[in-house]
Amino acid sequence: MTPLLQVEGLEKHYPTKSGLLGRSGGVVRAVDGVSFSIARGETLALVGESGCGKSTTARLVLRLIEPTAGTVRFDGIEVSGKAELRALRRRVQVVFQDPYASLNPRLRVGEAIAEPMEVHGVGDASSRAARVQELLGLVGLAPYHAQRYPHEFSGGQRQRIGIARALAVQPELVVCDEPVSALDVSIQAQVVNLLKDLQQRFGLSYLFIAHDLAVVRHMADRVAVMYLGQIVETAPKRTLFAAPRHPYTRALLAAIPHPDPRRRGRVAHLGGDVPSPVNPPPGCRFHTRCPHAQPICREQAPPLREIATAHASACHFAEDLPAFDAAAAEGIAPLAAQRLALYAAAKARRSA
Ligand code: SF4
Predict the structure, then answer these.
(1) Which atom of ligand 1 lies nearest, measured to the CA of 298?
(2) Which domains does the chain have, with CATH numbers?
(3) 321 lines ligand 1 (CB under 6 A)
(4) Does ligand 1 come within 6 angstroms of the Cβ of 286?
(5) pTM of the full predicted structure?
(6) How far is the CA of 303 from the centre of ligand 1 (A)?
(7) Pairing state of beta strands 222-227 and 205-210?
(8) Strand residues in 260-343 grouped as ranges (E)
(9) Ligand 1 touching residue 250 (CB < 6 A)
């Protein structure tokens, strides 16, 4: 079946200037040959440390910035001309990390939610007003909220408004760029539940950008791990959390703090800084921080290759890595369990 979204060899390189005269310096390889696909109704999570290129990838998919190279196909059609771009803008919507920054403070909430419908010529004024009321109800807000301004709402409510606005033109794919990372954990639970409910109800696909692996464990069907502008591992969620086959993924899992303070500090954390994307290390980009690096890793870049069904890793030694030490990532299970309990409690409160 044709994937809803198919991204091939996506690149975004920014030239840099150096010196007083602003001479051409190097090139920042923010995204460097990224490929993935998303099926209808599927959630693909894109994870990695800050600066790894995941948000730039999201902006490239949305065509908020132009790629240096690569293709984006939506529903089998390459997005290359104005007509495809117009269709993409309607069928793909975005929920941003900071809901306050993404809402115009001068527009009432009802106007902000109706704006995408106006832009895309959907309905007339009265049908748009009715749709705004329907959307407010869908995201758990009241009809009178349409008359209020964004500053009158809490962070969680603003994110609900952002979600209502994203759903206004009935998209098929929603790009969620760190949608809960600016919220308190208890509010995160409500917003994550809402996103899951809406997905079930409307068959939405999500490209879910996140650095919080406990949230990813709850939301994702598949996970793609990014490092220095490239995808280094991709697998179904269960496989990735139980048997990761890239040292960087293992380090990310091991870095999750354990909720029990007495058990913190027992795991090996990833050392060193992320190298500069202007001058990435030769060979495997992770070799400067990898505990398993061999001489070949400094010379040859490992391709992202399938090592099992639906499981790919960009490591020369993916098959030879020692068995994954579940104790090294022992934080993830209780942390996820803690979050799941919060999500369940929030859901129960909502349906009570
Ligand atoms: Fe580590 Fe080498 Fe694998 Fe890169 S290719 S992740 S340096 S073992």
Answers:
(1) 7
(2) 37-55+184-352 (3.40.50.300)
(3) no
(4) yes
(5) 0.88
(6) 11
(7) unpaired
(8) 305-308, 311-313
(9) no
